Amino acid sequence: MPRYHETYPLLELLENIARESGQMVHVQSQEERDPVYLDPERPLPESLARPLRELGIERLYRHQAQAIDSIRSGKNTVVVTGTASGKSLCYNLPVLESIGEDPRARALYLFPTKALSQDQLKVLRRFLPEGRDLMPAGRAGRGGRTGRDGRGAGGSRGAGGRDAAVRGGAVPGLSFPGAEHIDFRAGTYDGDTPPELRTRLRDEANILLTNPDMLHAGVLPNHGRWAEFFSRLSYVVIDEIHVYRGIFGSHVSNVMRRLRRICRHHGADPIWICASATIANPGGLAEDLIGDEVNVVNEDGSPRGRKHFVFWNPPNYGPTGMERRSSNLEAKDLFVRLIKEGYQTIAFVKARLLAEVLLRYCQDDLRNAGGGLSSRIRAYRAGYLPEERRKIESALFDGDLLGVISTNALELGIDVGSLDAAIMVGYPGTIASTWQQAGRAGRRQSESVAILVGHNAPIDQYLMQNPDYFFQNNPESAVLDAGNPHILLNHLRCATHEIPVPVTEEEGYGDYAPAILDLLQDREFVRQVKGKWFNTENDYPAATFSLRNSGENEYTIVDTTESNKVIGTIDEPSAFTQVHPQAVYMHDAETYLVDDLDLSERVAYLHKADIDYYTQAISDIYLAASEPDLGRVWRDTSVSFGECSIHEKVTMFKKIKFGSRDSLGWGNIELPDIRLHTTALWFVPSAETLRKVLDQGRVPVDGLVGIANVLCEVIALHVMCDAHDLGTVVEMKNTGGPTVFVYDKYPGGLGYGRRAFHQLEPVLEAALRLIEGCPCLEGCPSCVGSPLPPSYGTDPDVFTKGRIPDKEAALVLLHAMFGHDDYVPRIPLEGIRAKRAELIAARRKDTKDDEVWDLEDGESSEGEGGDGKGGGSAKGGKVGHRGPSPRARGKAGASGGAGTAARTAARPAREPEDAPNRPPVRPLPEDLRAKLLGQIARLVESQPGPRRRRSFPTERVGG
């Protein structure tokens, strides 16, 4: 192991910790990078150059200047650069310049969380003169005052960051004579905004900062009241677009589609500006999100401090030497040591429960060490109240907190100051997310360290053994599916509620949109009149669903200790596993015991209790597949993709003692099944392949179980998703032969299985390399899994009902499927079975099994919840850009710029009397139709009392 000198004290500290057990398996150092500057084609006005100079910014980085030139020319633009590269200057400067030229101009800023909106508001405040508020009590005259407000959070995001550009002498590219400052009004519009301020922001704000949820719930459904704002809307800014993937991105894409129609209805055609962390397809994702072409700016000109990336693998131990120490306990020791040494540290975990458990362990260790350090660390996750989270962010930025243990809620660009170290407990799931989390340390160009602590799971161990895979590969592509029928159903309700949708625009929402509208008409949610679809619901459809998941059921968590106090919310699948009766729920390291889960009211009642254990739930999974939509033969293997139904039943829970991690027993859970209609990839090895396994005395299903355990994680390397976004099942009932199913764990599917269908060969190649590369003989959690895999109890989809994965059988199968030379097992089957039986018996007697098997909570998606639901859309005239550079684009089209695809002649024709020009309707598959009807039925049941229907005019022009 290399010896680090005093020049790198953090690395020397880590080397000393790892000297005995060798956990430090790889170090990748990034050298410092000098800035690359560029002047925009036209200098910035003095009203912007002056505050930049006062912030120490004399020149712009290359990507900032290129973005400004692109936006000035009227192009939709996406900026893709690294963490702390000053991306927000790329949109703040052209937006403020436009407002300086036309005080009536408006801009809409969208951030995935309320915390990011507040953070960006502090940055905007720096462009105002001293003493001037962002929303003064009276409308002030524009221009004439000098100075700026030097207060507000510092940091690297946007204009406020000292590392956004260098300090130095004046450079001619940044200024020309003009007003001394730009007078503008800005504010955040979200669930925390007082009602009186909301009205003023709607009427007066030049820049409105909000999130997609509030746009969905509070703005678009009331677009008639926002007519002046939308008619003057010149820019829409969408920050952190890499977050808008999967279920959330699919929802937000539909919201953006409706926003475009609203803008056109009110006569505006804004420029769209997006910012993203590094992903493989920023242009494609941005275009899918906004429904229009974008110009990609990705030449990062920002400087970078020296960063050391350490791969840290917990040591082996146990009866076979293949088990590893818990990565959570390993991370706890690292975190505590760094805090004791005075290094400000952030630790990222994959689940809310893990944040609370790890916080408790770290506080106990620091409390025992004395010195008051235990009070200077906190947990940070979704579920905390907004004011609580803001206090944690501020304390971390100011240095009052030495450490924080966070879910990926802090992965985004909230400025929390300059941290020394970032610890990632387990591979975050994507290369892009890993770099995002690592980038939270060293945000001031200072030296920093990022530590990836590997779980004893296939993909983590693959990366530990093959670090070049991580460092030499580009980040993944982000995937969203705006046409998902389960998502589209609700957004069509919202769109028709806002402004009637002509039948000629139906296809802009996807192939199934016409058939979905017919279903909604059959159930009296919409009505077609003279070739237009009108919504007939009395209330806002936006109030009936959330953008953060595709299900309708969300549960409220109520603390009854002193009074009925709401302390959080949770979706239904998570509620069944985390707040079932007798479950232990954790909040800020405090333990609560769940008294009751009211399924009709969707409320979990719990009380604070001093409990020395936590709980994990266990489920069973059953799968039923429909006829495949796609099918092919890959080599000799039958491969299919199509729809399926998943039935999950939570059956029992386990009690685990804090500290010693002893198993304290089990309890039964009586809850209804959770049903999921989704899509899946499945494949059936040929009879010849299965025969080769049988000839070796092996059981094919045992080998397929091992392959399935690996696939669930390997696919995450090829598709931008987390392993928890996928589930696997091995069974025979659906196809008549041993079959591996890999399904999307979201209603309707999100395209992960479809992409894996088209990439099966590289996916299986990666699985083969991973299994062959593991040094174990009989199989372990680092390759094919184990009888008790790491996620047992919280991710039951990979638990295979007692089946023992057989590594040797998996290798026989994969060699045969690829047509390689036959694989000959290295050890006899009976020897493996005897050894495993002995190991399982030993584990059952060992009460400290969790010392070996890491806690892995099923929740992997985090972030701050939004404020509601809703949407709308409209079509109207188009106006040019209000500024010195008119827009060159002249785009038109239905449904937010989506192209009009020709209907195929094979679709059955349907010509309603009141819509003679309606294209033919593509029929829904029966299984999907039944599922959508069930979704509509739940909507009917959720509306209390008689269903009132609003009247509507033949032609409608407003909101």
Which descriptors apply to this entry?
single chain; 959 residues; alpha/beta; Rossmann fold; Arc Repressor Mutant, subunit A; 5 domains; seven-stranded mixed beta sheet; seven-stranded parallel beta sheet; 27 helices; globular; disordered N terminus; disordered C terminus
What does this structure look like?
The chain has 959 residues and is an alpha/beta fold. The chain has 5 domains: 10-30 and 305-472, P-loop containing nucleotide triphosphate hydrolases (Rossmann fold); 46-135 and 168-297, Rossmann fold (3-Layer(aba) Sandwich), CATH 3.40.50.300; 483-548, Arc Repressor Mutant, subunit A, CATH 1.10.10; 554-611, no CATH class; 621-649 and 671-868, no CATH class. It contains 27 helices and 30 strands. Strands 1-9-16-15-12-14-13 form a 7-stranded mixed sheet, sandwiched between helices. The protein has a 7-stranded parallel sheet with strand order 4-5-3-6-7-2-8, with helices on both faces. Strands 25, 26, 27, 28, 29 and 30 form a 6-stranded antiparallel sheet that branches.
* Content of β-strand: 15-25%
Low-confidence runs: 1-6, 139-178, 786-802, 842-916, 951-959
The count of strands amounts to: 30
Shape: globular
Structural class: alpha/beta
Q: Termini, distance in Å?
A: 67 Å
Radius of gyration: 28 Å
Mean pLDDT: 79
Domain module tally: 5
What does the largest sheet look like?
7 strands, mixed
Sheet with most strands: strand arrangement: 1-9-16-15-12-14-13
Percent of residues in helical segments?
A: 25-40%
Number of helices: 27
